[in-house]
Every structure is written in structure tokens, then in C-alpha cells.
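Input record, target 12 of the design panel.
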């Protein structure tokens, strides 16, 4: 059947995640819920380690993609490092048990308060502007730093997630490098790492190699004698649409390693190689399971209403992203065309338009695939609806990772957040 990836597969006339029947899961757990395959996440780590075969390779998982603490806990046990972008992300990582040396902090438009919190914990800062570099250097002369460079290459699947190039807010521009060196020299700062992150969902590996080449060109200059690592960021694309071709990561990995090996030989030292994948590690592991509760027919179109909405999966609204959807309840139904909506008060609240899916009936369960990255971590309580529960399947066992609030609990939380004591509302 037409599952998009291996995390959900068809066997004996029904869909499974690992050894667990999706249908059974839906019958026994209230929708909507997020479901993650932990072993799939660990497989992704193994794949990258194989493709980018380098002694000192470190995978700094970009935890913004999904900061579920149970997932992070298993990642910690399995040697992941973390890319963090806010003090709370960094503190969460430390509390879960990640050693400070396995965390990097890359905030954009960082404040003094943020800078101080991170420095106090001994986590390395990756600084992306001259003004922040100057303030950091004045406050902490003689310390270490990593610099985020804008390598002047535009890459990434849409404008909103292209994070380099001339008109971009991220990174120190190539022309500003002499000024950055002047600042670090003045305050005795050691530049131990150079970093780039050109965008998310990069399909053009030639572009990625071009930006790596640019960064290594800078690193080769004699003004950077203290480098310990080069960080090529994240951006590894995953297949969201069944017709998208798989990226040839094996070849890309080989080319990257050739490039890096040549650089290290010229540099005279084997540096560590860092990557910061988010999407690649977790996207395919997850699905958002929703229930169909209303069907309308309007001018030859079937309008399917579900019990979730864009606050639980904002990528289609925000980026026009495609997410594959399967009908768990009726996999052998006759194919039809459907528009699938959520329950939010905006017509943009649409998961899919004109989508061919086996017949959808009221009460059916649908799984929206590839929702392991940038879905729950971007979720909100908009319209005051609870954020769905999260379940993880690890070694064929189901873990209830987070139980969603009831409607009453959510209402009470709002009152409590705003300082209301008690409540006189009867439910
Ligand atoms: C600095 C940095 N590193 C890594 C990532 C992860 O990107 P992706 O999930 O596309 O791999 C991001 C995403 O925004 C980022 O800003």
C-alpha cells in the first residue's frame, strides 16, 4: 500500500508501526495524536554515520525539530550531540544529561541575557554577527568561540528556510571576516569552530558542496590556527512527496569527505566534522493521526473534516508543504479525490487539497506522514484546543510520552497562567 516511508508499513491487510497495529492503536487511544518510531530515528543516525565516514564525526541533532524529552533521552544514550537555539533548549539538554561539550548554542539575534546564561553553563556559543561578537569578546576576553559564516550560497526548499546568501539575516558576511578577526585578536578570543547552515531541505547537493568549499576556503586562511571543528549545519532533505527522488547521500557523503580530507591535510590537523540535521533525523519517524468526523459534498468535491488542524501541523499553511496521507481504516477503499481540513476557524486550515486517497468515511482514521519534524515543536493551543498526546514506539513497545490536556485542564491552565486563583466555572 502507499505508505511514504518505512516507519509505517503495510502487512497482512493493515498498517503497522514496528510490531504495533495502527488500527488497534487508534481504537484504543483518543485522536489526534503524534506517533514516533524511535528506532527509525536511531537508524537515521546510523545512516549518516555511514555516509559521512569520518573519525571525528559528530551529529548535533537540531532539537528545534522535535524536543520531545523521551526522544532526547534515548538520543543522549546513543551518542547524539545537540544543536540548541534558545536558553531553554540548552537548559533542557543539560537537564536531560547531555554533557556541555556535546551542546552547541546558535541563537540568531541573541540578547545579552541569553549570552550570559549560556556562557555560565560552559556551552560553546556560535556567534553570527559582528556586534554580538564584539559584546561577547568584551565580556569574556580570552574565551573560545565558534563563528557562523554566511557562505554566500542560497539553498533550501523554500524562501522561508533559506538561511544564507546576500539578503539574509544569518551569519557573518564574507566581507566582514577581517573585522571579525580584528575583534577576536583585540580580546584574545580563540576561534575554535567555523559554522554554516545554508537552508533546510536542500535538494541540490552541488550547492551544498559549493558552500562547504567556500567555508573551507576561509578556514584554510592562516588567521584561523586554533580550529577544532568545522560545522556544515543541517538541511538534509527528506522525501515528502512520493514522486520526489531520494537524494543520493552515499555519493554526497563521499564527495564531502574527500573535500574535508583534502582540507584537513592542507590545514595540518584532523579536525572534527559536525553536522546539525533536524528534519533528516526525525521527520520520517512521525505521523499525526487524526479522525474524520464530518464529510460534506460540494460541487463534486468531498470536504473532509477532522479533529485536528493547523496548530498541530502548520507546515502546509506556513510553507505550502505537501504531507502524504494514508487511510488507516479503509486501505482497500475505492480511490477518490478529497480536500482534507482541520477544525480551526480559518479556511486556510487545510491539510491537503484534491488528494487521491482510498474512500474516506466518517469515523475513519487518517495518518499524516512525515510529521516527526517541525510539527509538534511548532504546535500551539490556538482556538484553545489541546496539543495532541505523543506516543513513541521503541523496540516494539509503546510509550505514552505525553498525555494531552483535557479541555477542562486547558481552560484551567489559562486561568492559572493569568493569575486567576481557583475558578467558579462548572464543567
Ligand atoms: C543553525 C541551524 N542548524 C540546523 C538546522 C536544522 O535544519 P534541518 O532541520 O533542515 O536539518 C537549522 C534549522 O533551522 C538551523 O537554523
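The sequence produced for target 12 reads:
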Amino acid at each position: 500500500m502507499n505508505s511514504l516511508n518505512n516507519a509505517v508499513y503495510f502487512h497482512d491487510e493493515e498498517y503497522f508501526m514496528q510490531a504495533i497495529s495502527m488500527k488497534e492503536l487508534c481504537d484504543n487511544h483518543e485522536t489526534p495524536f503524534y506517533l514516533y518510531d524511535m528506532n527509525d530515528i536511531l537508524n537515521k543516525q546510523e545512516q549518516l554515520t555511514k555516509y559521512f565516514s569520518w573519525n571525528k564525526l559528530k551529529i548535533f541533532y537540531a532539537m528545534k525539530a522535535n524536543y520531545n524529552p523521551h526522544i532526547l533521552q534515548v538520543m543522549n544514550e546513543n551518542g547524539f550531540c545537540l544543536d540548541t537555539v534558545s536558553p531553554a533548549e540548552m537548559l533542557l539538554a543539560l537537564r536531560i544529561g547531555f554533557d556541555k561539550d556535546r551542546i552547541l548554542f546558535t541563537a540568531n539575534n541573541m540578547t545579552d541575557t541569553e549570552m550570559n546564561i549560556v556562557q555560565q553553563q560552559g556551552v560553546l556559543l556560535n556567534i553570527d554577527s559582528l556586534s554580538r561578537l564584539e559584546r561577547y569578546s568584551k565580556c569574556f576576553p580570552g574565551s573560545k568561540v565558534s563563528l557562523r559564516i554566511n557562505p554566500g550560497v542560497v539553498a533550501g526548499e523554500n524562501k522561508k528556510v533559506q538561511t544564507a546568501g546576500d539578503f539574509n539575516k544569518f551569519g557573518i558576511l564574507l566581507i566582514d571576516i577581517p573585522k571579525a578577526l580584528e575583534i577576536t585578536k583585540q580580546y584574545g578570543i580563540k576561534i575554535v569552530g567555523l559554522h554554516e547552515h545554508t537552508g533546510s531541505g536542500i535538494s541540490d547537493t552541488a550547492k551544498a558542496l559549493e558552500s562547504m568549499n567556500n567555508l573551507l576556503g576561509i578556514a584554510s586562511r592562516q588567521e584561523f590556527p586554533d580550529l577544532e571543528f568545522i560545522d556544515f549545519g543541517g538541511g538534509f532533505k527528506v522525501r515528502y512527496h512520493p514522486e520526489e527522488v531520494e537524494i543520493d547521500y552515499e555519493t554526497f557523503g563521499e564527495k564531502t569527505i574527500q573535500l574535508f580530507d583534502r582540507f584537513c591535510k592542507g590545514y595540518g590537523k584532523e579536525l572534527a566534522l559536525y553536522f546539525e540535521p533536524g528534519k533528516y533525523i526525525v521527520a520520517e519517524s512521525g505521523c499525526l493521526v487524526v479522525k474524520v468526523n464530518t464529510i460534506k459534498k460540494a460541487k463534486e468535491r468531498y470536504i473532509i473534516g477532522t479533529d485536528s488542524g493547523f496548530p498541530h501541523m502548520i507546515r502546509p499553511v506556513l510553507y505550502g508543504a505537501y504531507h502524504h496521507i494514508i487511510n488507516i481504516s479503509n486501505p482497500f477503499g475505492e480511490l477518490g479525490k478529497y480536500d482534507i481540513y482541520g477544525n480551526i476557524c480559518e479556511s486556510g486550515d487545510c491539510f491537503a487539497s484534491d488528494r487521491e486517497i482510498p474512500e474516506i468515511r466518517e469515523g475513519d482514521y487518517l495518518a499524516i506522514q512525515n510529521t516527526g519534524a517541525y510539527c509538534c515543536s511548532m504546535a500551539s493551543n490556538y482556538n484553545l484546543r489541546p496539543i495532541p498526546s505523543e506516543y513513541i514506539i521503541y523496540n516494539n513497545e509503546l510509550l505514552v510520552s505525553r498525555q494531552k490536556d483535557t479541555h477542562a485542564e486547558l481552560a484551567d491552565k489559562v486561568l492559572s497562567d493569568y493569575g486567576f486563583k481557583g475558578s467558579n466555572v462548572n464543567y
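The chain is about 30% helix and 25% strand.
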